[in-house]
Structure formats: C-alpha cells, structure tokens
Amino acid sequence: RRSDAPAILGVVLLYRLGDNALTPMIKPFWVDRGYSPAEIGSVTTILGMSMTIAGAAVAGIYIARRGIWRALVVFGVLQMLSNAGYSIAASFDGSRPLLYGATVVENFCGGMGTAAFLAFIMSVCDRERAATENALLTAAFAFSRSLAGSVSGVAAESLGYAPYFWLTLALGIPGLLLLPLVRKSE
What we know:
This protein has helices at about 5-15, 15-30, 35-65, 70-80, 85-90, 95-125, 130-160, 160-170, 175-180. The protein is mainly alpha-helical.
C-alpha cells in the first residue's frame, strides 16, 4: 500500500546487482589463472573478509555523520567502480599484484555498500510492520542475488572474464539511477 514501495523494491533488487553478478565468478577466475586453493582461500577469504569488515566499519561512521542516502550514493558508486579492478586484472592475465589489489578494493567497497544497503532496508521499514517488511525486502534481495549468480558462469564463459567483469560494473548503474526515487523514504 505504500506509495514508495515500487521504488524501494527496485533499489532492493538492483542496488547490489553488479556485486551479486561479480562475486560468484571471483574464485573461478582465480582457479582459471592457476592459483592454489590455499592462496585463493587466504586472499579471497581472510584478506577479503577483513577488508569487508573494515569497509563496513568505515561505512558505519560515515552513515552516522552524513546519513544513509548520501552513503547509498557514495558507496554505491564506489562498489560499482571497484569491479573494474577485476576487469583490469583479467585484462593482464590475472597478475598477482593486480588480483590482490582488486580483492582489497572490491571487498572494502563492497563492505561499505553492504552496510549502507542494510541501513537503508532497516530505515524504510515501518515500525508496525518492521519484521514483515524487513523479511520481504531481504527475500527480494536474496532473489536478485540468486538470479545474478545463476547466470554468472554462463555469461562469464560466453563473454570472457574481462568483458564479464566490465558488465558487472555496468549492472551497478540501474540501482544508482533509482536512488533519487527513495531519498524521502529513508
């Protein structure tokens, strides 16, 4: 019944679409470049998770000072642009410094984007129906993540890693374009 429901749902479905399409192909990209499972695990999991947590912490400070909407815009742009790191790494046949750098930047920016996104979801839920609305919005987000993941392998194989990673960057644009529609919702 909410007049802003379509815009909110659009942002929930599209805001993290680029990252949702990128993430399932990161480890296969590392494998296809010949890295060992131990190195892949160390870099993408330990280093990556550390950077995600650091990004989320920075986002929390930023959100408290600047607000959720501004954080959605700034971190949405950063999380979208961070996908370029993998595109560049793929263009240079996955060199170790480029891959490590791409992992650090993408996870840090993804942590900031995720924190802003989750704060947004919590902020748009009405108190009287918060549990229901949060569950529905989270389910919609999970649907878009699953859908993006289900086609990522086929798309990456068809296009090649570098073009596919550039495509994931472009997939971040629609969610950003919808943000002005939810500014008053937050």
